[in-house]
Protein: Aminomethyltransferase
Amino acid sequence: MGPAVTDKTTPLHDEHVALGASMTPFGGWLMPLRYTSDLAEHRAVREAAGLFDLSHMGNIEVTGPDAAAFLDHALVGWISKVRLRGARYSMICAEDGSVLDDLIVYHKAPGVYSVIANAANAAVVLAAFQERTTGFDVKLEDIQPGQALIAVQGPRAAEILRATPGLAEDAELAGGTAFDELKYYACLGMRFDGDPVLVGRTGYTGEDGFEIWVPAEHAVSLWRALLAAGEPFGLVPAGLSARDSLRLEAGMPLYGHELDTTTTPYEAGLGRVVRLDKVTDDGEPVDFVGREALAARKASPPARVLVALRGEGRRPARAGYDVVQRTADGGPGAAVGTVTSGAPSPTLGHPIALAYVTPEVSAEGTQLAVDVRGRAEPFVVVPVPFYRRPQS
Structure:
C-alpha cells in the first residue's frame, strides 16, 4: 500500500529519495525509514554520528508577557523555572491526568518559548493550548511550516557541527554562550549562511547530539553541508527505524506505545516531570490542567508499572505481546502485562523490551516470559535504561 494522499513531505524529501531512502507514512508525514540498513545506521549513531530529518515535529511558539505562567498552567512541568536558553522535557495532560503528548520546551529568548510536539499530536497540542489561554496574555503560533529540523546524534556530533561550513557562532544570538559551552538540555542561537538558526542539545538516542532549526529555504543546504562535513567522522543519514531502536536502548518512551490517553505520567515512571509543588511568584499554588487527578493518582497504588525487560533467549518481544508468568513446563503462564516496545538490541546483543506489568512482578530481577507466538520466551526485569553512553 502506498502513502496516503494526505501525507505531507518535509523540505528534505527529495534529498531522502536521492539517497535511496525507503519512505514510509509516519504521523501524517512521508518520512525516511532507512537508507541502507537499520543495523548500520544504528551502529553509526553509537560509534560516530547519524543525521536525522525531524522536520515533521510540531513547533508551537508561545510569546507574550504571560508566556511562562501560561505554560505552567497548560503543562505539568514548572516551565517558569527554565532558565533563559534552557530546555525541559514535559507533558501536556487532560483534566483526568492522561497524557495528550510528551514534548520539549525551549526558552529561546526572553518571553519566547518553543514547544516541540510529536508530529501526530501537534494539532492536538495546539488545540489544547488554545483552549487553555483564557486569562493569559499570550500569542500562539504554529511555526513548523516555515522551518526544518535537522539532528546530528552521536559521539562525534560536536566535532561535525564545528566542521560544518556556513554554520557559525554569533555572540549576540547566543547570549554570550560559546558553542563549546552549550550544556545538555540547553539551546543557543547561531547562524547558517548568515541567517539565524536555533541549536539545541537534547536528543532521542541516548547519545550526545544537537538539533538545528533552520528556515525551510536553507534546509537542503544545511543537510548537504552536514553530510559533507560529517563524512570524515563517519556520519551517515539515519531513518526512523534506527531512531526507534536507539531510543528503546536508551529507555525513552514513544507516544502511542508507552504513553497515550489511557496513561498518566506515574504509570510510565515519569512522575518526576509532574510538579505538584509549583507556585506563582506570589507563592500561590499553580492550578494546572490535570493537577487534581494527578495528585490523586500519585497518592494511589498503581494498577500497572512500566518496566524494562532483558531477553534471555534470541527471539524478540514485540509491541502487543503478552507478558506472562514463567511455568515449570516452559509454556506461557498467566498474563501479567503487555509489551509496549520490543526489539533485538544491536548494541547489547540480546532482545530488550518495555512493558506494562502488575506491580507484584515489577521488581528488578523478577523472572518473567513473553508469549511469542505461543512460546514462552524468558525475560527478566532490569533497570532502565538498557544502555548508557560511555562518559568521556
In short: Residues 219-230 form the longest helix (12 residues).
